[in-house]
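Marked as duplicate of an earlier ticket. Keeping the data here for the record.
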Amino acid sequence: MEPTQPIPDASGLRRNFVRILILVILLCAGFLAYLNDPPSTFPTGTVFEVKSGETLNSIAKDLKSQHVVRSTTLLKAMVVFLGGEQKLRAGDYYFGRSLSAYTIASRLVRGNFDLASFKVTIPEGSSMRQIATILSPKLTKFSSADFLRFSSEKEGYLFPDTYFLMPTATSGEVLGVLQENFDEKIKIVEPAIVAFGKSTKDVVTMASILEEEAQTPADWSIISGILWKRIKIGMPLQVDSTLGYVTGKASSELTTTDLKSDGPYNTYTRKGLPPTPICNPGLETITAAATPTTTPYLYYLSDKNGVIHYAATFADHIKNREKYLK
């Protein structure tokens, strides 16, 4: 009798097939999970714009190129699965943290922009450059260069306050909000400005100097009276803060050369107010500039603790310098 080939065990074949099938399923599931996971370079804290009429294919390509998703095919499939291919909402989508492709597809279909206003405080006495520094890291569409260019003639008129801004606010939009707030707040002080007989520009410029010269309302009012008196008698204001505005130096850093260098913001060599405000003052300093306190003083200085010491004569001022600045 001729030898015959052994008959394969059918149950063994089925087991091998099942093993292979399970392995393939696991590999596919793992690959899909990998594609669904956010890329390691996911741009956390950015805003993605979907333009009106933009196609799903274009959106998917943009998301992949910006490292928001790993696979355009998977994202498109998920959007179709969720029934939103024809219902994608145009607008700005904020990605505050890394998101899976499925979550992004779901947000696109539902129009979940995840944009909420955030609170930011502009301190009183902030300059335009300081405001730009505060806002630049917080606003995705904010350009410091544009803001400074747009606000080149707005120093003093961007009201320092607490604001609630959208993270997609542009430089122009922020500028408009700050200026509109100033226009509203200045109405509170307008009667005092009119009664004082000075222009709003002069009062705001004086207020900006007060912000830099002292820290308390009482001192603001007294120094306001001193500086307006100096202007009246033809005496230079002689304040370091106006020089610091253009040199970027603190009062202690100014040199004799700085003090002697002539320029529109040097209130040692030029009489009267500087040509523009040197920062953006708050309501209290604007009020103090319009309602100065009358005193016999003509001089003042600030000691190392920020305490202001006043003098009616130059001789007394010298004594204060020797006593408090040595």
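See parent ticket for discussion. The first strand starts at residue 46 and ends at 50.
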